[in-house]
Amino acid sequence: MSRAGLPHLFSPARIGALELANRLVMAPMATDFADGDGSVSAKLVDYLRARAQGGVGLIIAEVSGVDARHPYTPRGLGLWSDELVHAYRRLTDAVHAHGARIMPQIAHPGPDSLAPLLTGLEAVGPSAGVPNSLTRTLCREITLEEIEEAKGLFAEAARRAREAGCDGIELHAAHAYLLVGSFLSALRNRRTDRYGGCAEDRLLFALEVLAAIRARVGGDFPIVLRISADELVHGGRDLRETLYLAPRLEAAGVDAFHVSCGSYPALSWRVIPPTGTPLGLNTAFAAALKRAVQVPVLVVGRINDPRLAEDVLARGEADLVVMGRALLADPQLANKAREGRFEEIAPCIGCGLGCVAAREQGGDMTCLVNPEVGREGEGLLEPASRPKKVLVAGAGPAGLMAAWTAARRGHEVSLFEREDRPGGLYNLAAVAEGKQELTRVVQYLSGQAARAGVRLVTGREVDAAVLEEEAPEAIIVATGGEPCVPELPGAGGSNQLCAADVLGGRVPRPAGRVLVAGGGTVGCEVAELLAAHGYQSAEVLVVEKREAVAAGMFHEARVLLLERLAARGVRLLTGARLREFTPDGAVVEREGGTERLRGFDWIVLALGARPRDPLGAEARKLGIAVRVVGDAREPRRALEAIAEGFEAGRVV
Ligand SMILES: Cc1cc2nc3c(=O)[nH]c(=O)nc-3n(C[C@H](O)[C@H](O)[C@H](O)COP(=O)(O)O)c2cc1C
Fold this sequence. Notes:
- The chain is of the alpha/beta class.
- It has 21 helices and 30 strands.
- Helix 7 (239-251) links the parallel strand 12 and strand 13 (256-260).
- The longest helix has 20 residues, at 144-163.
- It is globular, with a radius of gyration of 26 Å.
């Protein structure tokens, strides 16, 4: 398909005086890639350069703090001092070199400041008592003097952005969050002076910040305002109120509105919507706002495909489309879309595992389908110095990624899969409710592997005969895991089923009362399926040894899963260690005593997997170089499996 296939997306646009080559905008996403002092790092430049090179029209860089005393993230960006301007310019130059434009997102974290943790200062908010879930402290009320000071900090940060060559700024006022967003929302603003009260009073701080910025940067420097069109929480701002306020913000000099929805922390899944949530979930809100203002409207939120972006624009729901995670998944998304190479675009499935959860768990930002995130400048994929015959055993996500990566580097790769199709256990993960889009990962990786010349052989397990026939010089074992059957008294009973068999439809869905042994993600998702309307499970109980079920999931996805389990009446028994299976249930150890769980018709085992590597030893005996990746090495999530497959393909 030619450019004409997406005529709206690839038409030029304007924000104030700023001209943009197309209507695809990258969303602000905190990466923690900056240097610890708030300055732009080489890593951040490489990461955003890749997105500019990939063809987006505008990049809204992540939060740039206005006050050094109040960090938003531990290694966030700053525009709080003139000393940071020089390094920032390296970023704007790199982006401009590829024809894209860039704006920083300017913010003071307010109640969401990490100061109590990092600098020992109290956080400040419109009103005292806003809890911060990270620091576990309450903010104090910002004083009138501090309000004056804050306005100056915003204005100075905007001036520095201009000096650094930025093409405008985005002012963060969304999600009932950070300082400006908190003032705007009745959820957090309970002031009784002129900055609080009715909607217009709560608007005052934003208007004054805008005026201070305008006074410092002039009238021609574009200002985008990010706002929750609807906070969607009882007591928060609704769409009607936003429609009332928007023309006032426009009159105060806002050049474009960037529409998100939801609020922190009460409705955070609406801010970063996980797998299974509706695509383009803010577009109707953007369309409403567009009718209320004259300036362009940008819309964000689960627009993960350029064809959907085109549809949003063609319907007139917004003037520009903003993508966040989709551009982590594939920095080349825009170029590929322009060339009609849609099937080559790495799909964002909204898993949140690499971009959000990994950071929260102390790791670096990454992406399930793109382990190169944050490593763009490392020259990871060198052509092989000598092309080799590489055999990959197992075409689950790890094996597919390993095979594709090795083939990209010029190796001659054969990929063997014992089933009749690629995907491995990931095909089962996609059976859970709302997770069908996971299949896109397998389709994408299979397609990329095929296009790179990988020979896929299905229906054949690698054994000694295959090794002899193929005579590979290197082997990557990605044979996955097999379900754990616990060595407990009573295990193996005829009413005991494996979660994988239930998900795979290999056994009839158990009816009656079901005990699910194991409350990891799989256990909870099987329970959800069994408790769905229309099936006959009268009761589902999940038994988990840890204190929490579905630990390790992306928080926002977990919140929704727990809500659905509760709505379907699934009972959760945590801190309960299985000791024995009985014909109608199990015995568990809990709170120092034992409990007998009785009256169950079926027991579904979701106790994880153990590595399955039938090949490594055999291959090593033949003196072939072997790498074991994914669940075959240690059962974990697809995030780790794919990253390991990539690493193996990269160094083989
Ligand atoms: C890792 C990550 C970091 C984010 N950081 C910010 C941020 O600094 N400022 C902000 O306004 N939104 C932030 N967001 C929200 C995104 O800008 C965007 O609104 C959200 O991801 C939904 O868009 P998407 O579905 O296209 O990813 C972040 C989202 C992610 C995934």
